[in-house]
Amino acid sequence: QVSGRRPYLLPQMNRWFAPPTATGGWKANSTDVFKRWIYLGQALQALCITAQSEHLRRSRDVPLHRTMGGMFWQLNSEWPGASKSSLEHDGRWKLLHHFAQSFWAPTHVST
Q: Which ranges of 1-111 would DSSP assign to H, the alpha helix?
């Protein structure tokens, strides 16, 4: 198995990204499928957090909301590997951190 969370992530992966062409699709036991899963998982995380942050920023003038965004609950990881963080254990940026640079910019256009 690629991930214990696959039942939750797989529908979203298939909705936004083309499944691997390897025999067996996401279930194929190959390094290429694993690498694609990790990369697209990071892309999906970045898209979801971007959508949430943009929605919260748009709500800043809405009565009872008045918010300017959210925060990551985990900025970095202490161990190498796939995680929810936006930074690698050695400080390199993951996709989410690149996206955050845009959606937390002083001026950001979203619809």
A: 6-16, 31-58, 95-103
How large is the greatest C-alpha to C-alpha distance in the chain, in angstroms? 52
Tell me the C-alpha distance between 85 and 16, whole Å. Answer: 21
- Give every CB contact of residue 94 below 8 A, 6+ residues apart in sequence: 42, 46, 85, 86, 87, 88
3-class secondary structure, 87 = strand
pLDDT in tens, 40-98: 888 998 998 888 888 888 888 888 877 766 776 677 776 776 777 888 878 889 899 99
First vs last Cα of the chain: how many Å apart? Answer: 37
* 9-21: pLDDT as tens digits: 778 888 888 877 6
